Amino acid sequence: MRKAVAGAVAPSSRAGAPRASRHKQEKSSVRPNGADERTRAQDGLHHLRRERILAEAAELFNERGYSGTTVDAIAEQIGVTKPFIYYYIEKKSDILAEICDQTIELPLIELDRALADRGGPKEILQRFVLNFTRVQIENQKFVNVFFREELQLEPAMRNRMNAKRRQFDNKLSQLLETGMIKGEFDISDPRLSALALGGMVCWAFTWYRPSGRLSLDQICDYIAGCALNLVRARP
Questions:
Q1: 113 neighbors 131 (Cβ within 8 angstroms)
Q2: What is the DSSP letter of 7?
Q3: I need a surface site. Which of 74, 102, 140, 225 has the fewest CB within 10 A?
Q4: Which pLDDT score, from 0 to 100, does residue 43 have?
Q5: In a domain, 99, yes or no
């Protein structure tokens, strides 16, 4: 059992909560007062502890499966008590729901970012697939839990997941249709092309190995090129 750290949860060196690709953020010029700073610090600590619980739970869900992992095991993995876990998460099913919710948000975040940037459909698609591939691989353990344990979710949460899938598919289909109309993509079925493209990237987590012959950058570049070939992007 790991030794608990007094007053806080020690940072994990293995799993991490899902994260989208890095973008620069502007710093605010407004200086908060003392009360605001304390509140912000408390909120930040709460967030870090909650994310640590999710990260270690994802580690165990990968190793033992959702059904084979207890809250006691998660607490022991972190080095805290079970009441500590329940202070931040109401029940075990909420842990899985949060992991799945954060994971399915990743492609939506990357697609929205790509659509918000300047460029034509070809440039947007290439940038999106490159970043989408990266976050799928960087968050490999969370993605694995999502696809393996999604059926364990409560019905309302499964409906939420399906709604976000449809949202993603619709947005990607619209991008491909725009590229088709503008003559940048040579496809006849944007909807089917979007499903094929999304599936190609989503399942990268099943075969990626950090020790493989290609670097992460090389893999992302290659898959982005495959996406352009899939839609027969014009030069």
A1: yes
A2: T
A3: 225
A4: 64
A5: yes
Among residues 134, 140, 142, the alpha carbon closest in space to that of 216 is found at 134
CATH number, position 46: 1.10.10.60
- Domain containing 53 equals 35-89
Same domain? For 99 and 153 the reply is yes
- Does pLDDT of 2 surpass 60? no
Q: How many CA atoms, within 13 angstroms, populate the side-chain half-sphere of residue 57?
A: 30
Q: By the 8 A CB rule, do 208 and 140 touch?
A: yes
Q: Is residue 207 part of a domain?
A: yes
* DSSP secondary structure, 149-196, as one string: HGGGS-HHHHHHHHHHHHHHHHHHHHHHHHHHHTTSB--S-HHHHHHH
Give the integer Cα–Cα distance in Å for 188 and 128.
21
- In this structure, the answer to whether residues 105 and 161 fall within a common structural domain is yes
Position 6 in a domain: no
Cβ(184)–Cβ(234) below 8 Å: yes
